[in-house]
Amino acid sequence: MQIDLIEIVGIIAACCTTASFVPQVMHTWKTKSVKDISLKMYGLFSFGLCLWLVYGIRIKSLAIILANSITLTLACSILLMKIVFNKKQDN
Amino acid sequence: MQIDLIEIVGIIAACCTTASFVPQVMHTWKTKSVKDISLKMYGLFSFGLCLWLVYGIRIKSLAIILANSITLTLACSILLMKIVFNKKQDN
Question: Where exactly are the transmembrane stretches of this chain (chains A, B) (predicted)?
Answer without folding.
Answer: 6-25, 37-57, 63-85
